[in-house]
Amino acid sequence: MQELIWLLLPVAALGGWIAATRSKAKPRSCPETILSPQYLEGLNYLLNEQPDKAIDVFIRMLEVTADTFETHLALGNLFRRRGEVDRAIRIHQNLIARESLSNEQRSDALLELGQDYMRAGLLDRAEGMFSELEQNNVYLERVLPLLLDIYQQEHEWDNAIKTAEKMEQVGVQPASPIIAQYYCELAEQARQRGDADKVRGLLAQAMERDKGCARASILLGDIEQQAGHPEAALMAYRQIEKQDIELLPEVLDRMYACHQSLGNIDSMIDYLRDAIPRYNGVSPVLVLTDLLARERGAQAASDFIAAQLDRRPSVRGLARFIELNLEDCDGARRENLMILKKITDQLQENKPVYACHDCGFSGKAIHWQCPGCKHWNTVKPIHGVEGE
């Protein structure tokens, strides 16, 4: 409460000064106080811890003029920054209701009220404020990102695409990689409806916007694989390494399924042997280890992963090495290996697998839009001894 009193006192002082100025300007025949009754009423509300009533009084006192407009605007901003959004909304709504505002002042008030509504979670009302400013081509550098944020939250991807394209036109930020993600979101929705042709068309638009969009290739591969086209799916999956090699682990199992459908496991083995030196992680090593175990036996797989662990230490790799050796041992050696396996299991338990390169958000599932900073395509597999 004390903080609020100190916040409102400058407004009260300004109101008192205006009242005093007007009082001095009026001729009078008898002494009277220079403080208006409204000013004293507002102070009384403050002292009796009734800030909402005090705000109403001071708003009435401060007639909106060229001199006081900025004071109203600043007071509303202060309330919003303090988290007192209802009070900010009341002040900015009061401004917009005044017919005496110039076009520029009305635009300022609309922008602030829209941000109040966003802070309060009233996205539809905020959208109305920002859309009016956009139609008037006012404050586009500030309004368009706010509109884009709303459309992302509401999953209105068509509107998000239009807004991002306009941002690109006015030079707010490079938007093509983000627009590609929006097309991927639309493709995901079409996929849920079972419209494979629509999915392909949307993914083509995504790739036209951003040839490096690995997400589009993953989705295209999934659609082709689901449609019974393993060769086409494999072609899409193999693009991942060129687009974003960090996402290669996401498609390795899918690629194996395609090779299995084609009856060509040796080709998958050859691909993995070529990819391992190019990818600084353990996932291709683990997939190849499993393939060697199936095709050539546990000993060949164990020898292979042991050599790899010497070059790239990994808890996941060590766990797989222990599992391979547990298959053919007993007695004290088995007991020792079981102890090691327990340790590696504990090291992997509840460990995040992915992290955002921008804000550090981490988790066990990949997110195309980071839940922390809301940036797109910044969540990647974690590297290191306990990760990739």
Number of DSSP strand runs: 3
Shape from CA axes? Answer: elongated
Main CATH class of the largest domain: Mainly Alpha
Biggest beta sheet attributes:
3 strands, antiparallel
Looking at how many chains there are and whether they match, the oligomeric state comes to single chain
Helix-and-strand structural type: mainly alpha
Instruction: Summarize the helix and strand pattern as letters.
Output: HHHHHHHHHHHHHHHHHHHHEEE
Rg, alpha carbons? 32 Å
End-to-end separation? 52 Å
The amount of beta strand, in percent, is: under 5%
Helical percentage: 55-70%
Low-confidence stretches: 4-9, 12-35
Short description:
By secondary structure, the chain is mainly α. It has 4 domains: 2-154, Serine Threonine Protein Phosphatase 5, Tetratricopeptide repeat (Alpha Horseshoe); 174-258, Alpha Horseshoe (Serine Threonine Protein Phosphatase 5, Tetratricopeptide repeat); 264-349, Alpha Horseshoe (Serine Threonine Protein Phosphatase 5, Tetratricopeptide repeat); 351-388.
Please explain how this structure is put together:
The protein folds into 4 domains: 2-154, Tetratricopeptide repeat domain (Serine Threonine Protein Phosphatase 5, Tetratricopeptide repeat, Alpha Horseshoe); 174-258, Alpha Horseshoe (Serine Threonine Protein Phosphatase 5, Tetratricopeptide repeat); 264-349, Serine Threonine Protein Phosphatase 5, Tetratricopeptide repeat (Alpha Horseshoe), CATH 1.25.40; 351-388. The chain starts with a helix and ends in a 7-residue tail after the last strand. The model is unreliable at 4-9 and 12-35 (pLDDT under 50). Helices cover 69% and strands 2% of the residues. The chain is mainly α and 388 residues long. The longest helix has 24 residues, at 2-25. The chain has a 3-stranded antiparallel sheet, with no helix packed on it. The protein is elongated. The chain contains 20 helices and 3 strands.
